[in-house]
Amino acid sequence: METADPAHLAAHSAALRRLAAVGLAGYGVLVPRLPTFALVGDTPADVPG
């Protein structure tokens, strides 16, 4: 009996495919919002008051 290659097992893993899909969805949601986060936090430090 031949042992399965770990890369082959990973390529056919439903859990890893689901994890990759969730990660890509999160990336797709987060990346378009990055400029908004940058603009919101862009306040000068030397503003009096």
Describe this structure in words.
Helix content is 61%, strand content 0%. The longest helix is centred in the middle third of the chain and has 17 residues, at 14-30. By secondary structure, it is mainly alpha-helical. It has helices at residues 6-11, 14-30, 34-40. The chain has three helices and no strands. 0% of the residues are buried.
Distance between the termini: 75 Å
Task: Tell me the total number of β-strands.
Answer: 0
Mean pLDDT: 82
pLDDT < 50 stretches? none
β-strand percent reads under 5%
Overall helicity = 55-70%
* Largest sheet data: none
Question: How many DSSP helices?
Answer: 3
Q: Give the CA-based shape.
A: rod-shaped
Sheet/helix structural class: mainly alpha
**Helix and strand succession?**
HHH
Q: How many whole angstroms does the radius of gyration measure? A: 21 Å
Characteristic terms for this protein:
single chain; 49 residues; mainly alpha; 3 helices; rod-shaped
Write the layout of secondary structure elements.
Elements: H1 6-11, H2 14-30, H3 34-40
